[in-house]
Amino acid sequence: MKRLILLFVLFAAFSCAGTGTQVLEPAESHALSLVSELSVPADPASLPDAERINLEGTAVKILAAKTAAIAPLLASLEDNPSGDKRMAIIRLLAMIVNRLPEGDARADTSALIEKAGARLMKSSVAADRHAGAILMALAAKSQLMPAAIELLDDDDLSNRTFAIRVLSEVANIDLGYFPAADASARKEAVKRWRYWWRQNENRAFYYMPDSNPILSALTSEAASIARSAGPYQLEVVDPDGNAVPGAVVAYSYFFTTFDGKGDKLQERTSTDENGRVLMTGKVVATGMQFVGAQVIIAKAGWRESGLTLAPHVLTKNSYTIRATIERVEP
Prior knowledge:
Blueprint: H1 2-12, H2 26-36, H3 49-64, H4 70-79, H5 83-98, H6 104-121, H7 126-136, H8 144-151, H9 157-171, H10 183-200, H11 213-226, E1 228-229, E2 232-237, E3 248-257, E4 262-270, E5 276-279, E6 282-283, E7 288-298, E8 305-309, E9 320-324
Parallel strand pairs: 2-9
Antiparallel strand pairs: 1-6, 2-5, 3-4, 3-7, 7-8
Helix pairs in contact: 2-4, 4-5, 4-6, 5-7, 6-7, 7-8, 8-9
């Protein structure tokens, strides 16, 4: 239990470091610093393990900053045209919003997100308008439907295709709209959709999570990542990079329920002739949450070494780790 408490403290802890001349509250200053460190050069799942681990470390800290991270994340999303970074930011925003209880904080957060989405949808850049529509889906009272209807009249084919797919999935109709049709044909179909929306915009269903395929996809993706712990490939080497065979590896996976009850999986194994060991993969039980792992590496004549593995939120909890241990001087 002491180790479980230690992990919680480790994963939630962060230092306060402000940048720039703007006077910010400590939490806001720290969140701004964290978001500035968020580097997403490609699809997170395709990054080398070392880069992915660094990215995940920053992402977990951003989530810990909660609502203080909302404004910096939105500003970064608007300022960075990279689709991969924008998608990572949107996923983080969705996780923060989903964890907020009903109340002023959730309402204020939704207002910030809607304003940012509205600004992006007015952009002359097609990718901005697409990102803006997705942001509208994250509001507590989803604005995805009106945003999608607005995109039906977009100059960009991919945006129009995205819009009708969303509308068709939610409303189960297409009203004769074809995104690749000529402008005059699309214009008449857009009129039909706008008329349909005037007749249906007061239906609560269209603002709820059940009618929000964007939020559903993001939530499902996050849940899929959270459902697994490991497997992890551990490589044990000496300071010169040579494999260390026969090292004992004891590891524990820690889990908790939302009411704070803890559980753990403990196993012990040893490295093979190449200094490697595969730490088992574990499917997280329903109602439990994986909060990290602790690894102890020991061998006679060598200094004991320890590792702490934080849970991932953007990519699967499975990667290769290299650990260095040193001989004890005689």
